[in-house]
């Protein structure tokens, strides 16, 4: 009877075992970066999470550079992405097989926690087994600690839980080499060791390790040295992680060798090696009690620092709080940060949630020290930088959302990067085509992007317009020297015969050329420079003359003899204001764009709406026509298929987020 | 009589006697030494080259390694290197000394290791095979007698090295698999040695290439490889036509010949990490640039081509090469530049260089501005305008080369570019296992030292299916002295 009762109660419990109903908010695939669906960070440490909850990149000490994880970033299809094996991932040992929470056969859904778009929650189910895993992951806002919490439900067949770490501590940052952040893994990394006293595994690389460092570290590994001896290395990148619940075993291995933690975890047996040198990986595992509760939870804390003391302090401080408390702190922080947001109160709640996601995407892509906002995914070479052409949207989004200080710091970042003197291929007044968060040039100097200076000046003027009179004057005085330099450069970059800009780099062709968008951008930039000069009382007649010539060139390209549009989509060229934005001749292109909007997908929808919004806000009736169509389209971006299969995934989440915010704000601007 | 009564003659006799006896050990020692030397000589004498695994990717072989080493140290090019690096082989010598406890130099090498030498790399690792003399054989026997056995395959271990004996040859490697493979592999088929100071390099997987290097002044080399190129009936006229010595150049009858040779250098990179990514990038670049295409047989009308890397701009982080191509048409009446279709989609702008008319189309600013023009009977293509201004109308015409293919390399220019690149790479941690200080100490001196090597000059001729070449790795009529600091 007792046995029967026990069985019945157990069965009942098992049947009822479900993860607590999560408060999910849809994560917009349009804001994803490659196959990374969610980003969590604190402006120093930024992690990228796939739809399966696998961490494929840990950018530290800036969202802009140094991916501290080893991932296969290149796929045979010619697109960049990340491998299904590697990075940071949980593995569940079931029936003598380790199933990594990184791909098939798991069925998955990944969402942000409602009101906390910095916490990624992934719900994974193993078809036909009743096993459900819930993985929550976030970066602490006040310390460089990543929290990864796994709960497994219906644990009947589950024997072990693994946590795998494929860290590759990186200190390399090569100017002008856009693959340095992820393509040089083979020369990154140094060593890993387990500090059994604190239960922490460290991966580290001192800055610029030499032959003597390598000899020393090999000796330490051979002699099974103590943690204090390992800690004697100089500052560099130090990463340490530990399980809040004591693991059953630690292991440090050499990747590609028999000691590899991944290979051993695949086989279900960690040898317990305490150190490794070279290309290292490591793992922890916990035995799941056979007769335990139907739920098994474990938490891993990962700390980042310049030396072992920084990491230890960060981990100790995080470990002193419980997981729930860390989560609560995180929620509070982001709730407070988002409180400052000036999101339109009359907007659809789903759009408000989308707006918050956009703001968090921008916050996560922002370098705390320099104010740069990078275009995110580290596996996508062209976008790990701040590019002024795209950054203009980000500055505008910060301004519209009420984060004026962030917008200003972003513009000042460009001033620091502006070339003050001329060099071969680097004229004074030009900006590098792309910049890492620490102002190092990200693309070869052969690439000259004249438009970047134009958009920088455009951002100056737009930001100034959002300030009150006194602040505006003060700000414009601050940016005048850069405006003057850039204005001279923009007005001097002209083919004297045609009055049009000389050729320069076109993203679409990967070479120099001339496009209508370039012309529109430069006209917009010179226009902004003239506004600033006029406001400050400087006379620049040569700029005025050049503006007249450029406008004439733009009119020649965009308008027919009767001064009507002759180009297909004039909305793309609104910065030139060849026709004033409130002119009725915009009506036809707006109508056409609204008609085409429902057929667009993902970021294209957002890009189209933001362009439309920049023009439509000039007239109330246009804005009212745009609003219902745009709201429907934006809501749709929240429910599109996840981005895991997108190919090619070259894609800039922060720029999309910025345009999305601009669109949401503009739709309700009046 | 003497004071002690002994007779002087007797004393003299006994002293003579004593002196005679004293000579005997010396004589015996000499005889023994001679005998041992003769024995040693007979032990180190063999006509075989040695053994290595069957799947060796490359093999170095010398009839007398000591002679090669000595010849190398006496050569003018080596002495030039020593101006910058007092002992270029110091790290190798130090490693050997740390491992076996003996500082090697040519004579000592021959005494211990014998004359024959073979080194090879296979998938199992790197290994060396020598035919040692009496000393090492005795030491090995003693070692065996002292209870250091070999395994069932005959592989023993000394320090970090595995070794094995086969037909009098000693095979050594850090990889025991290498030694095992060498012990059971058939003897490699190597071309016969042409002299004691010759080092043969065989690359079985690279078009059956055989290179013979002589350790003499100028470092002469000759060899052959299986590459199909066009045979010329008249000498090459463009090989030495470049107005300023380019960093390197290759001249041949047709572009396909140059491409075939360049592919030899690209092939070894196939297995490298990132190769696929670079390939995909190159494909994408081609698609994006959307340059015009040439007919498959466009170079059939060419009589001669010469491609040169004239310089490398290392002033910024990314080195930018300057390249130029000279083409000479079989029919001098041709009106259009053979590469004009490539630039056609870019709508190139007309230009004039030193009175020679042409066109230019910027791809990436001034650094990559494709320029085409005609200079006399030669069509020129250059990757930037200043380079075209140096070439147009200024080609030399009085120095022909009687060969089907010619290669030139200016070590001084290469050194100057390499120095910057190495310094930059060192500063950015791009040398695995080394920091900037290590690079400055161990790598940079080599980049600087090659400046004193003069020029590499190779000329090649078709012989059946093989391309046979000869020339000098480091030729300099008057060896440069180190500039006074």
Describe it.
The complex is a heterodimer of chains A (670) and B (485). Chain A is of the alpha+beta class. Chain A has 2 domains: 20-334, Beta-galactosidase, Chain A, domain 5 (Distorted Sandwich), CATH 2.70.98; 340-667, Glycosyltransferase (Alpha/alpha barrel), CATH 1.50.10.10. In chain A, 37% of the residues lie in helices and 20% in strands. In chain A, the strands form 4 sheets. In chain A, strands 1-8-9-10-11-19-15-14-13-17 form a 10-stranded antiparallel β-sheet. In chain A, strands 7-6-12-18-16 form a 5-stranded antiparallel β-sheet, with helices on one face. In chain A, a hairpin with a 2-residue loop joins strand 6 and strand 7. The radius of gyration of chain A is 27 Å and the shape is globular. The model of chain A is unreliable at 1-22, 73-81 and 641-651 (pLDDT under 50). Chain B contains 14 helices and 19 strands. Chain B has a 19-stranded antiparallel β-sheet, sandwiched between helices. The longest helix of chain B is centred in the N-terminal third of the chain and has 37 residues, at 8-44. The termini of chain B are far apart. In chain B, a hairpin with a 2-residue loop joins strand 15 (368-375) and strand 16 (378-382). Chain B is of the alpha+beta class and 485 residues long. Chain B folds into 2 domains: 58-217, no CATH class; 227-266 and 293-475, no CATH class. The A-B interface holds A 74, 76, 78, 171-177, 179, 183-184, 186-187, 208-211, 213-214, 423-425, 441, 444-448, 503-505, 508-512 and B 273-274, 276-277, 280, 283-285, 288-290, 313, 315-318, 320, 362-368, 428-438.
């Amino acid at each position: 009877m007792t046995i029967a009762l026990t069985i019945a109660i157990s069965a009942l419990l098992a049947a009822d075992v479900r993860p607590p109903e999560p408060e999910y908010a849809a994560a917009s695939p349009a804001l994803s970066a490659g196959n990374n669906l969610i980003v969590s960070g604190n402006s120093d440490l930024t992690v990228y999470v796939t739809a399966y909850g696998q961490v494929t990149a840990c950018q530290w000490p800036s969202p802009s550079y140094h991916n501290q994880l080893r991932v296969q970033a290149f796929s045979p299809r010619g697109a960049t992405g990340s491998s299904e094996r590697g990075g940071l991932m949980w593995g569940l040992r079931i029936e003598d097989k380790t199933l990594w929470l990184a791909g098939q056969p798991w069925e998955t859904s990944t969402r942000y926690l409602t009101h906390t778009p910095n916490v990624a929650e992934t719900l994974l189910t193993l078809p036909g087994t009743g096993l459900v895993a819930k993985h929550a992951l976030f970066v602490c806002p006040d310390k460089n600690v990543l929290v990864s919490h796994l709960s497994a439900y219906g644990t009947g067949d589950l024997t072990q839980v693994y946590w795998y770490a494929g860290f590759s501590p990186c200190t390399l940052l090569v100017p002008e080499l856009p693959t340095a952040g992820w393509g040089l893994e083979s020369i990154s990394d140094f060593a890993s060791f387990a500090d059994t006293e604190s239960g922490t595994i460290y991966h580290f690389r001192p800055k610029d390790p030499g032959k003597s460092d390598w000899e020393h570290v090999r000796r330490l590994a051979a002699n099974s040295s103590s943690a204090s001896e390992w800690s004697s290395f100089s500052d560099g990148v130090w990463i340490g992680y530990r399980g809040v619940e004591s693991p059953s075993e630690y292991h440090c291995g050499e990747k590609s060798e028999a000691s590899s933690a991944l290979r051993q975890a695949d086989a279900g047996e960690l040898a317990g090696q305490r150190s490794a040198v070279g290309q290292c990986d490591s793992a922890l595992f916990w035995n799941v009690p056979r007769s335990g509760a139907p739920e098994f939870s474990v938490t891993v804390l990962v700390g980042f620092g310049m030396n072992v003391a920084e990491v230890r302090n960060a981990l100790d401080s995080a470990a002193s709080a419980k997981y729930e408390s860390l989560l609560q702190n995180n929620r509070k922080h982001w709730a407070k940060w988002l409180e400052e947001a000036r999101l339109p109160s009359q907007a659809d709640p789903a759009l408000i949630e989308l707006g918050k996601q956009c703001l968090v995407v921008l916050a996560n892509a922002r370098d705390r020290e320099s104010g740069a906002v990078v275009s995110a995914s580290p596996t996508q070479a062209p976008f790990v930088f701040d590019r002024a052409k795209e950054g203009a949207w980000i500055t505008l989004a910060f301004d519209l959302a009420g984060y004026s200080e962030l917008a200003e710091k972003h513009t000042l970042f460009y001033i620091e990067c502006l070339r003050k003197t001329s060099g071969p291929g680097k004229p004074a007044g030009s900006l590098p085509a792309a910049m890492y968060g620490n102002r190092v040039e990200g693309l070869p100097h052969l690439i000259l992007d004249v438009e970047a200076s134009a958009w920088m000046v455009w951002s100056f003027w737009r930001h100034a317009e959002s300030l009150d009179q006194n602040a505006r004057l003060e700000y414009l005085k601050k940016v005048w020297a850069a405006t003057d330099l850039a204005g001279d450069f923009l007005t001097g970059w002209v083919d004297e015969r045609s009055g049009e800009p000389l050729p320069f780099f076109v993203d679409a062709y990967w070479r120099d050329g001339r496009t209508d968008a370039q012309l529109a951008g430069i006209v917009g930039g010179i226009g902004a420079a003239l506004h600033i000069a006029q406001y400050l009382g400087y006379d620049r007649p040569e700029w005025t003359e050049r503006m007249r010539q450029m406008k004439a060139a733009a009119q020649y390209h965009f308008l027919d003899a009767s001064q009507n549009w002759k180009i297909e989509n004039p909305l793309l060229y609104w910065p030139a204001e060849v026709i004033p934005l409130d002119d009725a001749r915009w009506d036809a292109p707006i109508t056409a764009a609204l008609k085409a909007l429902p057929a667009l997908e993902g970021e294209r929808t957002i890009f189209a709406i933001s362009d439309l919004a920049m023009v439509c806000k000039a007239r109330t009736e246009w804005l009212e026509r745009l609003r219902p169509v745009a709201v429907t389209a934006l809501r749709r971006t929240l429910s599109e298929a996840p981005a895991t299969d997108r190919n090619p995934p070259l894609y800039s989440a922060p720029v999309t987020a910025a345009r999305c915010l601009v669109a949401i704000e503009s739709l309700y601007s009046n | 009589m003497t004071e002690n009564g002994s007779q002087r003659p007797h004393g003299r006799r006994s002293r003579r006697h004593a002196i005679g006896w004293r000579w005997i050990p010396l004589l015996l020692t000499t005889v023994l030494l001679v005998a041992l030397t003769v024995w040693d000589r007979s032990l180190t004498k063999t006509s075989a080259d040695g053994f290595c695994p069957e799947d060796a990717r490359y093999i170095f072989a010398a009839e007398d390694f000591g002679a090669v080493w000595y010849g190398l140290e006496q050569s003018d090019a080596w002495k030039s290197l020593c101006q910058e690096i007092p002992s270029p082989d110091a790290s190798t010598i130090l490693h050997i000394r740390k491992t076996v406890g003996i500082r090697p130099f040519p004579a000592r090498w021959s005494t211990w290791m014998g004359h024959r030498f073979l080194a090879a790399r296979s998938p199992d690792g790197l290994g060396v095979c020598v035919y040692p003399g009496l000393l090492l054989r005795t030491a090995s026997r003693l070692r065996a007698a002292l209870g250091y056995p070999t395994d069932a395959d005959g592989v023993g271990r000394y320090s970090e090295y595995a070794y094995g004996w086969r037909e009098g040859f000693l095979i050594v490697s850090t990889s025991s698999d290498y030694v095992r493979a060498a012990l059971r592999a058939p003897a490699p088929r190597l071309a016969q040695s042409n002299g004691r100071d010759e080092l043969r390099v065989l690359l079985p997987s690279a078009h059956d290439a055989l290179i013979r290097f002589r350790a003499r002044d100028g470092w002469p080399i000759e060899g052959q490889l299986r590459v199909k190129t066009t045979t010329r009936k008249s000498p090459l006229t463009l090989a030495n036509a470049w107005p300023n010595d380019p960093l390197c150049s290759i001249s041949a009858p047709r572009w396909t010949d140059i491409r075939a040779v360049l592919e030899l250098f690209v092939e070894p990179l196939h297995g490298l990490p990132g190769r696929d990514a670079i390939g995909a990038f190159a494909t994408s670049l081609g698609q994006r640039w959307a340059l015009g295409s040439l007919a498959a047989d466009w170079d059939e009308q060419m009589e001669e081509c010469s491609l040169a890397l004239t310089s490398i701009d290392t002033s910024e982080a990314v080195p930018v090469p300057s390249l130029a191509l000279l083409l000479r048409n079989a029919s001098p009446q041709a009106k259009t530049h053979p590469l004009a279709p490539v630039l056609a989609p870019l709508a190139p702008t007309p230009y004039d260089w030193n009175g020679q008319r042409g066109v230019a189309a910027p791809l990436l600013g001034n650094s990559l501005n494709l320029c085409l023009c005609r200079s006399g009977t030669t069509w020129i293509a250059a990757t930037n305008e200043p380079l075209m201004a140096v070439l147009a109308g200024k080609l030399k015409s009085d120095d022909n080369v009687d060969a089907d293919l010619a290669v030139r390399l200016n070590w001084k220019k290469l050194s100057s570019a390499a120095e910057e690149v190495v310094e930059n790479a060192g500063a950015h941690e791009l040398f695995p296992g080394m920091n900037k200080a290590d690079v400055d100490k161990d790598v940079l001196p080599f980049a600087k030292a090659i400046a004193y090597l003069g020029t590499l000059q190779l000329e090649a001729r078709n012989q059946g299916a093989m391309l046979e070449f000869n020339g000098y790795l480091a030729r300099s009529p008057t060896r440069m002295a180190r500039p006074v600091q």
